[in-house]
Here is the input.
Amino acid sequence: MKRLLGSTIIAGALVAALGWGAANVAAEQDPKAVIKDRQDTMKAQGKALAAAKGFSEGRVDQATAEAAISDLIKTTSRIVDKFPPGTGMAEFPGVSGAKPAIWTEWDKFKAAPQAAVAQEQKLLALIKAGDKQAVGAQSAATWDDGCQVCHKPYREKL
Here is the structure.
């Protein structure tokens, strides 16, 4: 019993130390690398949305479009994590297009991707149903009523 308790305490301390270490590694990341990763993620999201449009036009098969939008939903759900403080256009003009409003309106910013995810989920359902005409219309709606919810107030085009 004593040995089990000791092992549990050691395991707990190890988990805490690893968590602290991971937080410090994130805090010590190169801001330019964070910005590049964020921009690469956004480009991948654009390609995913293009796959849905391609499906609606008969250029992309259904399975590819479905996988692309499934991945898009996952990345959009976690996109806020790609915006640590100190990685915006104020600190990196010409490199980052992330407006300062992201951090001054943090709660509002955190909620914004939910609109995109809702649109992406509609898009995925239409792709699964195979309705190419509706997918085309929903692709446009996903951009206008999803992506732009963040882009308009929080992104400066570089």
Summary: Confidence is low (pLDDT under 50) at residues 1-27. The longest helix spans residues 2-27. The helical segments are 2-27, 31-56, 62-77, 101-104, 106-111, 113-129, 132-154. The chain is about 75% helix and 0% strand.
